[in-house]
Fold these 3 entries.
Entry 1:
Amino acid sequence: MSDGLTDIAILKEMIEETAIVSLQDDGYGKNKVILREPPPANYNVTIYGMPDDDEVIIINADKFKSPDTVFKGNRGECKRADFVIVADTGKKKVILCIEMKAKASTSTEWEIIQQLKGAQCFIAYCEKIGKEFWGQKNFLDTYVYRFVTIRNINIHKKPTREKITDDHDSPERMLKISSPHYLQFNRLIGGKK
């Protein structure tokens, strides 16, 4: 490791503080994070049961400027998901890409897949920077990806229950959550491992 730093610590050195979402205490001695979409969207989602601060970084991927000054964007390569959570809990190393939509009809599934792929490319860029500039040759190599879309955020309907699986490991097989209520981190990453 570079100077004995963990992958999470390296990411916290690498990423600007303005792009990092802070953990909060949930009032019961556990951690939560509130993912906010600013106006005009103006909604938020809370994820409970988050790992400790030294085990996780929550990145607002929207802060990463669109690469449309270089890429044409014809295939969606300039898009990215709203948030990326990178966690090493000691039991599981996971990169969770999250796209949030106020309504189910806001975007097509193809557009959401492109956004999730864009977040994966953003992390691949961070991975290369960690390897080249921090000299960490195995930086983020052992992490697994999970992809989630959260829809109907402000619609108070009975939440759609998704069974806990580990198969949302590609943008095309994203875990789809509608009308979220009390989201648990372990559920989003696929189980309690």
Note: The radius of gyration is 16 Å.
Entry 2:
Amino acid sequence: MSNGWDWINEGQRIAEEARQARTLDLDAVKAESIVFEGPLDAIQYSIAEPAPKVGGLAGDLADMVRELENCRAGHCEAAYKQNSQGGEARHVVQKVAQVLGFRLGDAIVDRNIWSPANMARVIKAAQDVMNENEELRKELAGRDKKDDRTVAALREALIHAGEAV
């Protein structure tokens, strides 16, 4: 079960775009643009260093390169897998809530249907069902003992009635 988003393919798409951006011919861009008046080394240096906080093409490119390196290191795939598993877990929580007879969206806690506090309602409902089940078992066991005593008393009465005849 997935949450409808193919995170692995999306990560591969982003990695491919970053790979294409990395092979961009900066000399050709500089020749065609009036924006790049400084030396090209400054742009290459900003790509190798962390992205500046001001943004811009160099910062965006540095962000993409850093994201690509993280993906190559296996971080993206692990994150996508973790996100997919989280979606599957949320689906299970929703199904358990439905089996227990309520909807998570009816009384949302913390203004988020998937907040831990809201999903804890499922745990409380399951605990309530378990407590009710235990009480019913105890009541049934008490009835069985009472029925056993009634049957024993009836048997004894029949034995005495048979002796009297």
Note: The first helix runs from residue 7 to 22.
Entry 3:
Amino acid sequence: MSFGDPNNPYGPPQGQQQPGYPPQQPPAQQGYGYPQGAPQQQPGYGYPQAPPVQQAYGAGAPMTAMPGSVSAARIMLWVIVGLQAIGVVLMALGAAAAKDLQDSATAQESSALQDALGDSQGVLWGYAAFGVAWAIFAVVLATKFKSGGNGARVTILVFAIITAVLGIYPFILVGLAHTVLAILVAVFVGNANGKAWFNRARY
């Protein structure tokens, strides 16, 4: 009697296990030299492959567009340059008017008036020279908004703070606009957007 013969009428039905024998399962197909379930890969030749370079956590694309607040600060700095130019012209005109008044016949009769007009000319010309230097400084800083780094940012902050103070004293009559603009420049350059822009990565 053969239990393996499928035509044997006394054997168990085909597909069922024989009594007294443990159940048999088909052997699992495994790749040679690899654990079961692990994908098989072709071994590399030569030097081992380097691991893929991963981007640092939190690093995003480099900033290329200037934030709106920083752009507004640059425009305000150019407005300060224009106001400085107007102030220089007014100071120069005042000094010239004081010189003409000093040379007039009325002033010739009073030595005290001549001395006062002479002192006024010196003060006005001094203010005009300072205004020219401060305007040039502002122009240089305004051109550093695109290419300058954190050093330029700190310099702009110091310039804006000093300009705001000078607008209160001694130029209180003509410096109110300077004070307001300088405070806004300091705020926009000193905030998070200004810090990110001036510290951005450059390639």
Note: Residues 53-59 have pLDDT under 50 and may be disordered.
